[in-house]
Amino acid sequence: MLKRFYAADWFTRVSLLWLLVVAFCSIFGRVLPLPDPSFSNFDSLGVGPFSPGHVLGADLNGYDLLANVVVGAQTSMLIALVSVGAGGSIGATLGIVAAYRRGRFDYFVNTSFNILLSIPNLVLGLSLVAVLATSPNPDVQISVARRTFVIVLSLTVVIIPILGRIARGATLAWVNRDFVTAARSMGMRDNQIILRHIVPNVLPAIYGVGFLAVGVVIVAEGALSLLGVGVIDGISWGSMIARVAGDFEFAPHSLYVPAIVLSLTVISCNQIGDYLRSRLDIREGKI
Amino acid sequence: MINELIMKLTIFGRRFAQVLIVLIGSTFLLSMLLQLLPVGLEELYVVSFDEASRQIQLKRLRLDRNPVFGYFGWLWDFVRGDFGQYIYAGAGEKPVSGQIAAALPVSLRLVLYVQVISILVSVPLGIYTAYRAGRKIEKVISYGLFTLSAIPNFILALLFAGFFGVTLGWFPPLGYVGPSEDLVEHFRTMALPVLALAIPLIAAYTRILRTDMIASLREDYVTMAASKGLSNRRILFRHVLRPSSITLLTSAALNMGGLIGGALVIEQIFSIPGMGTEIAIAIFGRQFFALQSYIALIAVGYVLFNVLVDLLIGFVDPRARERRRA
After folding, report:
1. Entry pTM
2. Does the complex come out with an ipTM higher than 0.90?
């Protein structure tokens, strides 16, 4: 997939580079020589960037910002990739099969997508998290792992109709092409046609929107944290932002650091998604 | 004539049926969501000392029968404008409609200001960037807008609240004043939330309008108008803007969903007593019946708004009307 980028403009290249850095941090974040992200250092509450021991400074609780941002990449990326991966696969499968088979199944799938899309996606995610992450006993908090799982599950449900609809639309454009008819007339079976002829053509469109969806999920994770139902007590970009939201007056850098990192990641995802989509248009035009 | 009328009615009927299916589907889904709660609704809301009063409470909350029946009971109430109750087990109830009457206008105002300002700013920007396409200044504006459109609105909100609200002290960093209390103060409290929500939208709308305007500028009728000697201003506004504004309108309707979601978070940040704040209160107070009504209301509003814009597009673009008839 990387070879698609050899002719990209500088903005796309920088975006790709940034996403690679984020990917590196989320894989190796824990083993990098950084302070413990959940260690609250009382000697350096709210120190600014470039202080000894804290390269990007610390927030008012004494947590090292660089360590939190690097390790937080892991949670944020995990949530984003798993929910887009799972939601995208389920949505794309449903969308492609529905568009290929048409008829009642298509009507059912399309109506279901419309129903899910009729609830604004943050509202849908919020209500799913609110219901699923309710603890049976109000005095006992739900564990971070379970909360993360609930968030991933909820955001997966949010992503399914978004990517499903794109896949359905793209499939409809290919399903009546001559080569599909030819394959069918030669007696190729439906699942073979879908795998060999439809999927390779539909996939580029899904990649493009998939990157945009990663951006959507990262933003949603942040928004859920601010609403108080994110990865509470965990280390993620959203929960960092939520934690320092009220400290701007005394330690503005503790907001700038996660805000800039999160924004850059979303901008990069959007740029790469847009780039993939625009390349797709050109390819379509040549045929 | 009669044929045409019948055709129009069928199209309208089909559209109406679609909307109805979506609305019933989404509210049904939300209602069934409550079945996934790890706690029983009965445990949450029913406190009783004897079996008889327990049965009465269960019946009142429609927990005594199949949840599907419960849904239709809820739907019947919802349609008649009864949005259910906040239930404090053993300590009384409070109607949700009272909260909605207070919170909904606040949220609607916020969303309205954002949409109006975004469109007012993005139309001239879109025209300018399309007219000057390819020049350096246009590229700077376009890259800048792309970057802005990707910054989540809650981050802008936190930065604005901190910078303009606390550091500079130009606007109140939190709170809300109703327009009937003090109009100036109302706009001062709304300025930062509106700005935070509007900036990403302005960027998105400008891009959309620009793309469409550039496509329209290549049309033959524009060349024709120019060769007739019409002024650039007249061509841009009369011949190009009108057909190009359709995608803008559609995306304004589609963005409504994101805007409602965004408004929930922004209201939290600025402590604005709107629907977002009410929803958060309902979640943390475990008021799931209230939550169901709030979210259903948002879904209904969102769908109806999209239908409205669909109709509006028919007015703006006669071609769309023709297409629909065909």
Report:
1. 0.85
2. no
